[in-house]
Amino acid sequence: MKMNKKLLFSLVGYGLALLTVAVVICHLAAIKEMDATVSAAGRQLVVWSGGAALALVLVLLGIILFLTKRIAQHERVARETHTMQQHIEFILGATNTGLDIIDSQFNVRYMDPAWQKLYGDPAGRKCYEYFMDRDEVCPGCGVVKALGTKSVTVIEEVLVKENNRPIQVTTIPFQNEEREWLVAEMKADISQRKQAEEALRTSKERYEHITSNIPGLVYQFVMHPDGSYSMPYASAGSRELFGLEPETIVRDAGALLDLIHPDDVEVFNLHVRESADSLKPWRHELRTLVDGKERWYQGVSHPHRQPNGDILWDGVLLDITERKQAEEELRKHRDHLEELVAARTSDLKAGNDELQREITERKRVEQALRESEKHLRVKLDYIMSPDEEPSSLSLLDLVTLEDLQQIQDAFAQAMGVASIISDVEGHPITTASNFCGVCEIIRSTEKGNKRCIRSDKIVGEKAMKTMRPTYEKCLSCGFVDASAPIIVAGKHIANWLIGQSNAMGVDRGRIEKYAVEIGADVDAMLAAYEKMPQMSIEKFEQILNLLWLLAKEISTLGYNNLKLTKDIAERKQAEDELRRLRNLLSNIVNSMPSVLVGVDLQGRVTQWNREAARATGIAAEQAQGRLLDEVFPKLQSEMEQVRKAIRTRQVQEDLKVPRRVDGETRFSDVIVYPLLANGVEGAVIRIDDVTERVHIEEMMMQTEKMMSVGALAAGMAHEINNPLGGILQGAQNIQRRFSTELAKNVQVARECGTSLDTIRAYLGKREIQGFIEGIRESGTRAARIVANMLQFSRRSEAQVVLADLPELVERALELAASDYDLKKKYDFRRIEIVREFEPDLPQVPVVVTEIEQVVLNLLKNAAQAMQEEQSDEKKPHIILRMKREGDWVRLVVEDNGPGMNEPTSKRAFEPFFTTKGIGVGTGLGLSVSYMIITNNHKGTMTLDSTPGKGTRFVIHLPLERKAL
Amino acid sequence: MNAVVGKVLIVDDESVVRLNLAAFLEDEGFEVTVIANGEDALKMLAETPIDVAVIDLRLPGIDGNGVILRAVEIQPRVKFLIHTGSVNYQLPAALRRLGIEDEHVFQKPIEDMAVIVEAVRHLMGERET
Question: Which ipTM value was assigned to this complex?
Fold first, then answer.
């Protein structure tokens, strides 16, 4: 297009230039030629016109220049536009954003190249077809909206051609140069946003699920810089724990805090402040006092400092009242016992040593128990929160004192060295073994003991630092000491020390001096010194090497113990988790409205949900492990499906399986899922009762069938009615023209040389009157069939009015009576009519003639059926019931006739289905009635029949005038 | 019965309908004219006075409604019965203004032509008053 314009401009330019040159040349030639022949005036004219031509040339040159410039400008603009378009397209491609332009007829005028690659050429295709694979405008179309409102609209869509990729479409309406309204659409990919939203939603749900299932209150607690408290979050646990709604607590933390026992408030505040200052976890036990009753709670929470100066704790609060009560009980009991014992002791002091000992022993055991519980708690704390201070892990948490002492004693005895195990601060854990007299004296003084401990600490630290078996001189007397560190899980928790060897030759003077310094008996010290065993430094080094090996063993032992404890805790946690999961699963399985039965390959029940128990009356415990055909005989036939499912590993379906329940046919979907778990083969049988669905499907098929009959009838009614008219009226005329009542008939017969009587005699003998009557009757019946079929196609002029149903029914009864009188086939008066009408029924919006027709139809059917079954024992009756049921009026027409068997009642509403003799019914009465009720009046119509007892039709008509 | 009791015009493109209606009405003593289309019917009305016209709706050329509207301009006193095979015919307001009502519309097929005789007689009576 642009190229063409350019070309056009140049052509016009060149054309004009050539023309001008031609004009000038012609002029010059003319002047030259005229020189000789033409007069001066003539020459003047030519010269003048030559000047004019020159001016014209100049003007044209100007125009050409202007045009050339315009063309250059055009080219530049085009070039820039092209570049910009390329830029935009590059950006769109990089951001996976689509850009298109669509007109008001939904034609895609432009589509960026990146999308064209994927979606193809949009030429000649509508946007909904091009993008969405649809045949018509998409619901909620952004183009329609944007063009309608002339403003930018934003909608979200999914691209079906791209695996439902979600996009955000921004539609911008604008006018092009031709003032035509178009829209530009930006299609931005929002998969990631959608995924993020989904992830957020799932995470939130999971969080809600977790908090609501935690036994206790999960909360957030805030201390503001002014010292006030608030609680921005509380889980649903608050209801059970405190009888408070989470919202109440969030609105006013006071609702919860005011429950704290007055005696505990001060301590509580103190703990909170401490935790806030140190930012260490808040662990606290506190009481509440509600209506004079105390309850105990234990809370754990971790503080975080917020940018605005708030301190925020995330924590959990548990109700420990029962534990506290049990403890209190125990204490009271013990106190009581002790009191008793004490009382008895004072009375029988002399003879009660035995008892006394017993009490002491018990106290010791209790103490030990308490100690052990404390250890356990420390250990667990460590395991549960590895960030805790390392010092809280002690060697005795991991190895018993007895074991340690035995090893240490045996080692010291065998090696002939003194030995002790201390913590990292140098404080003894074990009792010293094989200590020399000097050291015993030193340790017995306060100052000496302190120095020894410090010395042990330093020796231990040095060993830990070098991680090599080395020895040091002790701080007390310069004896040789050495240490092997005990390290568990990377933490230095104890030192195993040996020493007190005089291997380096300590002199008496130093001993004497030190004895004075620490205030010990100098002579005793010296005497003890003399008795000290001597040992070579090599021997000491050998012993030290062995010590390191043993210390390493103890470390390993401790580590293994620690791991074991951890494993046990983890296993317990896993078991709890498993139990919870199993509970959850069985809850889900039991909540399912389907029967779920798990079986193994032999047909033994492995799973039995609540619905299965309900259906069979056999509890899950009793069904477990028994053969399927014993506990669920109806499923015996499914075992083949089970085996097939297991063999093929494919789901097996038996849909709409009919079975008889209480004389009624119900339908089930039986689906067998193969199950493969831990190599155990089996299957799950799922049974759903789909009776309702099957009925609805049947009804829908019924309605559809009738609608198609209606459409067909409407199409052909006109074509059939004309020839029917010919048949009916022709027959009527024939009959009349044989009648003696018309004078003209007699006259014409005479004119023809015969008499009407002769003709009539002939007709009578040849039964021609009967044939004509047959034509009329057949025609009448055909006309009625067509008219009935037309009922299936809704006529627009039908008028809905509020009608009195009982009045309408009375009219139908009158019609029925007269109809029967007329045909003399049955005696309607013989039938007893019972009316059970609820008083004060509201008026119902109906098309009166249609409902009259329905009721008349039902009355006729009932009467006909009862006529066929004439018997003297049973007095025939028809019961008419009417009552209001919510927003409906229920109308029942019930007879005590022969009833219908199931195949008949099933097909009763089907068009052209009839049990009456040929010529009696059209087979359309009930289906027309059904159509009138369900389609025209949006009501329901059902029938319920028992052979030998009678038939009952139940009609529900809506009281509200829906879209009739 | 021998005397002519009135003049009836039947306009219908189906010959069998014309034939039967005409025969029945003639037997009742009416003078009947049958015409197969609207244009000819209007021409006839310009020349001959008619009491009651029985008009089919679906006609070649001008349809029944059009024939009635033009016919009253030619003979204002003529009365009409409509005879139609259409199952959902709605009487147009313009015809209602001429005094034609639902009871003057007959759905084909008429099983007993006595009803149409009844209606024709009734309209004749109206004309006389």
Answer: 0.88
